[in-house]
Every structure is written in C-alpha cells, then in structure tokens.
Design a protein that fits this description.
binds the ligand CSCCC(=O)C(=O)COP(=O)(O)O, eight-stranded mixed beta sheet, globular, alpha+beta, single chain, L-fuculose-1-phosphate Aldolase, 8 strands, binds zinc ion
Length: about 220
C-alpha cells in the first residue's frame, strides 16, 4: 500500500493523538532542551513497507505549531513535500518499527534514565525485580525480574542502529541508550505512554534503591 492510499482522516487521527501526547509530556518536563522525539505509525504494517508521523528535529517541544510533525517512510524519507527535517533519531524509530511492528514509539531524556543507564552500563542492562509497576510493561508474573537493555550511544546516530536487533528483548517494550534516554513503544499511543511512564517510575525506583542499599 503506498502512502497515497492513506486517507486524510487516518493522518489527522495520528496527528491529533501525537499532539495530545506531546503537550502532556511537555507539561511534565519530559522534553528538556528540545530533547526527545515521538512517532506513530499510520496505515498497515509490513516489514517491507510502513509509514509513520515523527516529530520534526530540533523544535521546542513545549510549543504546539503546524510544523511539529511530518510523515516518513520506512527509510525515514519524507512522504510529502516539506521543508521540515525529521528527528535526527528517525533511524532508530525505523528500526524499532521494522523489528516489532509496533504502533507508536516515544523517546525522552531524563536524569534518572540517563543515570541508571550509565550505572549499569557494564551489564548492558538495568535489572529490576519485584516492583509492582513491572506490570505496567504487561509482565504479570509473581516477583518478576527483568533486564532493560542498554545500547551504546554514538553522536553519529546511524551507528547505533546495528546494535538494536542484538539487544532488543521481545518481552521488554523499551531500550535505553547509554547516558542518553529511553525509547518505549506499544501497539498504540495509549500503550506506548503507559510503558514510558512505567519505565520512568522503575528508573527512579532503581536509582533510589541503589542509594538506600549502599547505606545499609
Ligand atoms: C537536544 S538533545 C540531542 C538530540 C536528541 O537526543 C533528541 O532526542 C532530540 O533530537 P531531535 O532531532 O528529535 O529533535
Ligand atoms: Zn534523544
């Protein structure tokens, strides 16, 4: 299915949801210094062909303007004529859609996600055990233990991409970039938001637990 077959209504639905999420996240201070990016898929998915709306690069994400999003294809190329540049991290979104077939991906930088990704870098994963909010990731087993994967971070963003298939864990709907931020995804915007919020809670928990543990 080509992008031309995607209806105006389908595009508006996606843009409406992204606008609401962006404004909600901005009000919670999730986009310091223009960091972070959001995307949502539109139309059907196959590994060979899919389209998504993504935030334009470098914008003040606390402001709402008609130039906040653009549609790109599975190679990150704009689907419509535009002067906007897709997020510099669009290649990461592309790879996550390709591998998971998810419907939405949200990326934010926070002090807690950056600190824990650095603290646990040698393990290449942040361990979390027995915390109730693991259920927010749709993992329901008793006393669950999870490892949230951490990827290398490079200024040259395409260099990050080859590590994604190696590190992605199909049970965990997110990956950390070392000292950078979290990517969380879900079937739709509702689920991706729930996952992102659960991850952020867990990162703060882990950080604070590490401090308490070392005081014993
Ligand atoms: C200003 S933070 C450095 C870039 C980054 O990590 C980010 O999330 C925002 O980049 P974008 O191109 O999506 O604005
Ligand atoms: Zn980033």
């Amino acid at each position: 299915m080509s992008f031309a077959n995607i209806t105006k209504e389908q595009k508006q639905l996606v843009l409406g949801q992204l606008t609401a999420i962006k404004s909600d996240f901005a009000s919670r201070g999730f986009f310091p210094g223009t960091s972070g990016n959001l995307s949502m898929r539109v139309g059907p998915y196959s590994q060979e062909e899919f389209y998504f709306a993504v935030t334009a690069s470098g914008k003040d994400k606390s402001k709402s303007t008609p130039e906040d999003f653009l549609f790109v294809d599975r190679n990150g190329k704009p689907c419509e004529s535009t002067s906007l540049k897709p997020s510099a991290e669009t290649v990461i979104h592309n790879e996550i859609y390709r591998l998971t077939g998810c419907g939405a991906i949200f990326h934010i930088h926070s002090v807690y996600n950056s600190l824990v990704s650095e603290w646990f870098w040698e393990r290449r994963a942040v361990p979390v055990k027995g915390v109730e909010l693991i259920k927010g990731l749709n993992i329901w087993e008793e006393d669950a233990a999870i490892d949230i994967p951490i990827l290398s971070n490079f200024a040259d963003v395409p260099r990050i991409v080859p590590e994604i298939p190696e590190r992605l864990n199909s049970r965990i709907p997110g990956i950390l970039l070392r000292n950078h931020g979290i990517y969380a995804w879900g079937r739709d915007a509702f689920e991706a938001k729930r996952h992102l919020e659960a991850f952020e809670f867990l990162f703060e928990y882990v950080y604070r637990w590490e401090l308490l543990r070392n005081r014993k």
